[in-house]
Structures are given as C-alpha cells and as structure tokens.
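Run log, item B.
One chain of 148 residues. Sequence copied directly from the ordering sheet:
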Amino acid sequence: MRIVEVTAVTPEIVESIGRLIPQLSTSAPIPTADQLENLVASDAAQLLIARDPDREDRIVGTLTLVLYRIPTGVRAWIEDVVVDESARRRGVGELLCRAAIHRARSAGARNVDLTSRSARKAANRLYRRLGFSLRETNLYRFSLEQSE
C-alpha cells in the first residue's frame, strides 16, 4: 500500500473521492472538482490517499490532515478517514493515520485530534490501538444553516 499526498486533482481523484465519501457518510455532499482543488491548494490541509499496488494502484482510502497555528501552538486534526469497503481489515486506515501523525509531528504539532462516531466500532478500535485516547470534553456545534 502506498500513501501519497494529492498535489493535483485529476478525474481519478474526483471519481475516487466521490466513491469513498458516501461510505463515510450518506448525508455528506460529495465534493466537486473545484472544491477538491481548493482543498489541495490550501496551506492548512493535506489530502492523503492510499493506493493499492495489488489492484492496479487503485485508490482505496483517503484521509484529510488539517494543520493550523493558534497562539498556543500548531494544531493537527484528522478528518474524513474512509477506506473502501473492499479494502477494509487490510491495514489501510492504520497506514493513513500513521502517515498523518508523522506529518503532524514534522509540522511541530504536539497532539493530533480526531472525532469518531461511537457506531464506527472498527475505526474506534483502530484509533485506540494507535494510541489515541478518549478525551473528557464537550464538543459544541453551531449550525450556520439554522442561525439566520
């Protein structure tokens, strides 16, 4: 398995993300090519993909690492981790996460945060196995769609 950062949005990238995102969330909109180009061009985000050399280098997973500076240091967040159903239980998610952790460390982050729904049992086991710890915190969300 090869983990690489997306540096240019191609039709293959658009198709693959379009195939993977619905496996993560049925309610999330599939990003357009323009949205993916904005993401890839962002200084704050790195779009990582997993390519399977045993399957003609097909894209079988993705993860977004978000890095940004605040007054107290560099923050790192892992978002939108998804592995194709056909490639699960083969270590793809672990490789993606380890690549993101390495990149966060190299950028000077002290921690890497992520969230995961409790229903995602396999993902939560993976995160604990990698050394992530469940934090006692309150996560608040303000919906911009409902606040007008």
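Observations after the first pass:
- The first strand starts at residue 2 and ends at 5.
- The first helix runs from residue 11 to 24.
Flagged for discussion on Thursday.
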